[in-house]
Amino acid sequence: MSTEHSGEPDGRRYYITTAIDYPNGKPHLGHAQEKVAADVIARYHRLLGHDTYYSGGVDENSQHVLRAAEANEVDPRVWVNTMNEAFRQAWSKLDVSYDYWIRTTEERHIRASQEMFRRAQRRGDVYKSTYAGWYCPNCNNFYTAEELVGGRCPNHPTLSPEWLEEENYFFALTTYSDRLKEHIEAHPEFIVPASRRAEVLGLIKQGLRDFSVSRQVRPGTRAWGVPIPGDPQQVIYVWFDALTNYLTTVGFPDDEERFAHYWPADAHVIGKDITRFHCLYWPAMLLSAGLPLPRQIAVHGFISLEGQRFSKTLGNSIDPVELVDAVGSDAVRYYLLRNLSFASDGDFSRAGLLRHYNDELGNDLGNLLNRVVTMIQRYRQGVVPRAGTFNELDEELRQLAEETRLRAGAALEAWEIGAAFTATWNFVRRTNQYLEQNAPWKLARQPEQAERLDTVLYVAAEATRLLAILLSPYIPAACERILAQLGLDPVQHGAWEREARWGSVEMERVAQDGVLFPRLDPSALDGI
Question: For the whole model, what pTM was predicted?
Answer without folding.
Answer: 0.92
